[in-house]
Description:
The chain is α+β, with helices and mostly antiparallel strands. 21% of the residues lie in helices and 33% in strands. The protein has helices spanning 62-71, 91-95, 119-130, 161-170, 185-191, 209-225, 324-335; strands at 6-8, 11-13, 17-27, 33-42, 45-54, 80-86, 137-142, 148-156, 174-177, 196-203, 243-245, 247-252, 257-261, 268-269, 274-279, 286-290, 295-301, 305-306, 311-317. Helix 1 crosses helix 6 and helix 4 (161-170) crosses helix 6. The longest helix has 17 residues, at 209-225. It is globular, with a radius of gyration of 21 Å. The site of zinc ion has 3 residues, from loops.
Amino acid sequence: MASDNFEINGIIVKSGTRTTIDLPFGRMYTHTPMSIPVHIVNGKKSGPRLFLSAAIHGDEINGIEIIRRLLKLPALKRLRGTLIAIPMVNIHGIISHSRYLPDRRDLNRSFPGTEKGPLALRLANLFMKEIVEKCTHGIDLHTGAIHRSNLPQIRANLDDKETEELAIAFDVPVVISSNTRDGSLREAAAEFGIPMLLYEAGEALRFDEVSIRAGVQGIINVMRSLEMLPPSKRQSKKHIEPVVARSSSWVRAPDSGILRAMIPLGARVKKNTLLGVVADPFGEKEVNVMSTCNGIVIGRTNLPLVNEGDALYHIARFEDIQEVEAKVDDFQEEHSPEEIAFPDTESPII
Ligand SMILES: [Zn+2]
């Protein structure tokens, strides 16, 4: 069956074609027009319409590179359905290297937005009307906040069967099940019956090669499971069932001082495992930081200068933690780049 045309901002993208469109979004106060760049690949055959969004938090840039690599895939010539890629949603935040919009609102707490509300709500409204409401599925790409790294993980509402299938297809070791009402894009899309995944990996304002590779592969895996891409020709490695966490908690700094972190991302910890030490600059007073639960470290601070109460380690709680660490090790190994002597323009990012 031939694909349908895809229309965005009054522009028709015919089946079997691809194009970049600048979706207008007002002006800066410098009079400079603002627009959101959108790339649409419309397959010859009809199928799901999947959007990929990145930098909804303007300082979370791994997803921009994930989308760039994905759009280079030769297999997109045989795409079934439509891929809509939006590498920079929060265009204001990207310019100022900021998570937020200039009105200090968080775009991912502003969905579904309104036409006449504050700037963040207007941007959310435009994104819903021009992108989300025209799609059948979505993947939103995030990283940890500034000075914080996340282990590659999927967050999704696993109470929804189709969403659960996509979350497992993505193939990262850890899936966090959450069903929050928080003004996020994920929640707003769910209201429209659109299954959505949120991919979290790496740190704000940094590229992380393992996170980028795992993201690209995860999206390809999801597109294969939706039959948007043909199955892999390579003998597929055995699919590792992810470990699902239903809750997580932050371990906070017990005191202000200098943190010596002792546990890496992906480590399996038990209640009261020593995670690090916070000390004064002279090492005269030291306070241990202990895990508050059994689980796996899915997020950590990279900044050793901490105030009491600062979030240091994010731990996903698991009932059965035996196999998680091995799964994370295998995963890291699989996605780690090999050293190369003569880099080219598509070499791994170091
Ligand atoms: Zn984010």
